Amino acid sequence: MNLKKRPRRLRAGAEIRRMVRENHVRVDDLIYPMFVMPGKGQKAEVASMPGVCQYSLDEFVRALSEVVELKIPAILLFGIPESKDALASGAYHEHGIVQEAVRLAKAHYPSLYVITDVCLCEYTDHGHCGIVRDGVILNDPTLDYLARTAVSHAAAGADMVAPSDMMDGRVGAIREALDEHGFEQVPIMAYAAKFASGFYGPFREAAGSAPQFGDRRTYQMDPPNGEEAMRETALDVEEGADLIIVKPALAYGDIIYRTKERFGLPVAAYNVSGEYAMVKAAAANGWIEEERVVMEALVGMKRAGADLLITYHALDAARWLNRG
């Protein structure tokens, strides 16, 4: 028996394991999704996502203090409007809920990096991500509304926009509109590989965005399809995407890996609401060690090739990482 090679030598103690660790999660990798809504003095926990809240604007500013104190560099903003209509007018209104939240965030914490989700589903009375006519979700007419939304976010002070609608051509339309309005410095982080997943259920409660008819399978991708994800991402890159999102994360490590290997752009893994909720539920029942499982999942996303981690675990993860 040849025992000259003993891999266990490099596992013998905590110090050497840290020294040879191949992948790391850092606080700088984290992006924290947040939900803002009208009203005052409102902080409503999402029942299916313990620890995640919908904030009125005043409470949102208070919540940001913890994000900044934990040194989380960026947030991803979602809006819950006061009213909805067929043309998603709240999405691109100058004083829409996201626009006002961006202004407040930049006024109170100028160094916080503010990313805005660009979509229509929270703002339409039918809950779909595009304009609907006679029960059909229309691709091309939707692009103008998405572009107007992105421009309004940039005008409010957003550092980056993230179109999540999955309409064909939306990255190009948004890039063109941003450039025409003098926002050529604002990057686009495209939800390029976004699957029609069963892991999104809790988010629809958090954002109030469940579709009122049908589903989103005509624009979000079918989960078995990897090559389609590569084609979608290639189109978004060609149209001007600066960063790529793969969503969800845990069941799509292969897509994260392939995206990073093929395109070489920064990749964000979106650790989505259902993934978060499952961990929280299991931890609440004492079935798993929450910190250990969360950090294992996040480092798995990094190992797959993700540069950035969009996660509802961001506050907890930052506390654990800052503790050392």
UniProtKB/TrEMBL annotation:
InterPro entries: ALAD, ALAD_AS, Aldolase_TIM. The keyword Zinc applies. The active site is at residues 194, 247. GO terms for biological process: heme biosynthetic process. The keyword Repressor does not apply. Keywords: Heme biosynthesis, Lyase, Magnesium, Metal-binding, Porphyrin biosynthesis, Zinc. Its EC number is 4.2.1.24. Mg(2+) binds at residue 232. It is an enzyme of class 4 (lyase). Pathway: Porphyrin-containing compound metabolism; protoporphyrin-IX biosynthesis; coproporphyrinogen-III from 5-aminolevulinate: step 1/4. It catalyses: 2 5-aminolevulinate = porphobilinogen + 2 H2O + H(+). Its cofactor is Zn(2+). 5-aminolevulinate 1 binds at residues 204, 216. Signal peptide: none annotated. Zn(2+) binds at residues 119, 121, 129. GO terms for cellular component: cytosol. Belongs to the ALAD family. Homooctamer. Catalyzes an early step in the biosynthesis of tetrapyrroles. Binds two molecules of 5-aminolevulinate per subunit, each at a distinct site, and catalyzes their condensation to form porphobilinogen. This is Delta-aminolevulinic acid dehydratase.
